[in-house]
Each structure stands twice: as structure tokens, then as C-alpha cells.
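Support case: adenosine-5'-diphosphate complex. Customer-provided input:
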Amino acid sequence: MYTIILGAPGAGKGTQADILSQEMNLPHIASGDLFRQALEARAEFGLLAKSYMDKGELVPDEITIRMILERIDQSDCDSGSLLDGFPRTLHQAEVLDQALGKQGKSIDKAIYIEVPSEELVKRLSGRRLCRTCQTPYHIVNSPPKTPDRCDKCAGELYQRSDDREETVRNRLNIFFAQTLPILDYYKKQGKLIKVNGNQGIQDVTREMLSALKHQCQPEQSGEPLRFPSTGSGRASVAEFTLSEAKALPQNDIRGERRQNKW
Ligand code: ADP
Ligand code: ADP
Ligand code: ZN
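Agent response - structure generated as follows:
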């Protein structure tokens, strides 16, 4: 099962993908993490990517696509993966479909985590990441048990340089201009599911799991989505609504790990 997690910077893609990856027993593949790891390893494409990431711009498709296709070609992704941060352009989405299609595979669902812009800015400015395992924390919303240390691996927490306010604005604008239109691509394929990301972390997880497990009715492909024409920085995608997912009991979220039935 190949599932795409879509959302603006700060929407909670990494947070949710981490949890779902354990729940669904699938690898979490995050394009941003792969770039940061490549940079740490001083790989040439990591250094090249950094020049774009520092400005909050998208890394060119050619580099990004090659990196992701090589990653999902590894054997741990044979039965699927959770893609976080990729695709971010229509071209990336099309190439991904073609590449999976050649192997007789396809994307099952694209889940869009919707969060208002003001909240995104607050989340990004308080975000801290583990230098070792990349787990995201938030100084207010999701603090570590020990200050500046990762709960999972005791790694050091740091603030991403592109989470500074100037860069954040640029990243949000780029998201609304270049990435949001791909929602329509998945909607036309009948694969798009929208969840409310403006609620607690566990509630978002519950909604996402519920949508996936109950094979929630994806957004209908008839009417195309309408996007703000002015680049106001606010997505008015209110006209596509998720059929209300039945709430799962709390202990279903962090219950015993189940066999991979995805
Ligand atoms: P993304 O991968 O979409 O950029 P992250 O998962 O890194 O987003 O989350 C961005 C920040 O917001 C992190 O600091 C994270 O701890 C916090 N966060 C994630 N989900 C929520 C939520 N539902 N409510 C409040 N804060 C959240
Ligand atoms: P966030 O979690 O805030 O959404 P990411 O960690 O996913 O950010 O990405 C950080 C940066 O890496 C992006 O601003 C962009 O420069 C680059 N990047 C990540 N994924 C892609 C992609 N699919 N296409 C192009 N650039 C990407
Ligand atoms: Zn860690």
C-alpha cells in the first residue's frame, strides 16, 4: 500500500507519518529528511539541495525524483510505503505514477492534512527536530520529556534553519502555488482524502487511521477543486469534504501492533 501524505509545511506530515508507519508497519519515506541526511553525509546532491532549501524553494524535480525513486526501489518498500513531502509538483506526481505503474503498483490514497496558515506559522516557529532520528517535537504542543533531548534516542534537538520566519513565508507561498494544485490530480483519480489537521495530534491520527481502515469514500472526482486566484496564501478548499470518519476508540491508535494488512 503506497500512501501519500500531503500538507503544507508544518501541517503535521512527519508527525503523523511516524505514528502511522508504526501502526501500519510500513516505511516512512520523507523527502526533506533524505535531503538533510544527504547533506550530513556531504553527498553532492545534498549540497546542491541545500542551496534551494535555505531559500525555502523547491529542489529541482530531476534531483528530487531520482532520490525518491531510488529509495522506494529498496526492498523494505516492496509492499508499500508512506510518502511524506513527495510529490510536491504535478510533474513529480505523474512520474511517480509512471514508475510505480511499470512495477504493477500504484498509489492507494493521498491524504491531505488541512491546517490554517496562522497555525502553520506557529507550528513551524516552535518545531524542533532530533538530529539523530529526525523525530519532530514542538516547544509548546509536543515537548520532549527532557529538555532538548529526543524521547526515542536521546539525540540532540535542533531548530531547522529554514523554519525561520522569512523562509517560512516563502515556503508557504510555494506550497499554495506549486503543491496545492496536485490535490486536484489525486481527486480526479478518486484517491484524495482530506482530514482536519487543526486538532490534537492523536485526533488527527485517529481520523487518518479511520479514513484508511474504513476505506472512507474518497473525494468525488466530478467537480474540480477551486483554488484562490489571488495567491492570497490561504487555501479555500472548503468545498471538498471528507465523508465523516467514524471515530475509533482511543486505544486503537497506540494499541498492539497488528500484522501488516495494508
Ligand atoms: P510537517 O512534516 O508537515 O512539516 P511536522 O510533523 O514536522 O510537520 O509538524 C510541525 C510542528 O507542529 C512540529 O513541531 C510538531 O510537533 C507540531 N505538530 C504536529 N502536529 C500537530 C498538531 N496536530 N497539533 C499541534 N502541533 C502539531
Ligand atoms: P516540511 O516538513 O516543512 O514540509 P520538508 O522537510 O518536507 O519540509 O522539506 C524541506 C525542504 O526540502 C523543502 O522546503 C524543499 O526545499 C525540499 N524538498 C522536500 N521535498 C521536496 C520535493 N518533493 N520537491 C522539491 N523539494 C523538496
Ligand atoms: Zn531521536
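The beta strands are 2-6, 28-30, 81-84, 107-114, 127-130, 136-138, 157-158, 192-196.

Case will auto-close in a few days if no follow-up is received.
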